[in-house]
Amino acid sequence: MSRIIGNHMVDLIKHFKLDFDLLTYVPVTKTVLFERGFDHMKLISRVVQKELKCDSYKTLKAVKETDQVFAQNREKAVLGKFKLIKNVHDKNILLIDDICTTGNTLKECVKILKLGGANEIKTVVFALKKEGK
């Protein structure tokens, strides 16, 4: 599945001619990693990195456990969830994630990357949640 999603993202990146210095991804929490045994976004980012022959690093770490699916206020639930673990100063970043439900996770990650000195941050997701669903 990671190959299918990763290759779809590669197609989008090429189609829109996205230019960036560094590929990174939204990481899973420790609980999700323990339950699944793998970080699906890390696997997807490896596919994208290999196909595009680009630099890719884990720049963010999930430091707060949240269950956003059941949270009353998803925006508040994600606040403080991530911390920066790699230098991104003066980098143009492509941030990838599997699903964008409300955009709050991506916004929080972008905020942390910007605070770390990143120049420009572009995002690519595999799927978007339809309004009202």
From TrEMBL:
InterPro entries: ComF/GntX_DNA_util-trans, PRTase-like, PRTase_dom
CDD domains named in the record: PRTases_typeI
Pfam family, one: Pribosyltran
The organism's place on the tree of life at top rank: Bacteria
Record domain Phosphoribosyltransferase: where: 73-132
Homology family: Belongs to the ComF/GntX family.
Protein's name according to its UniProt entry: ComF family protein
Organism: Thermosipho ferrireducens
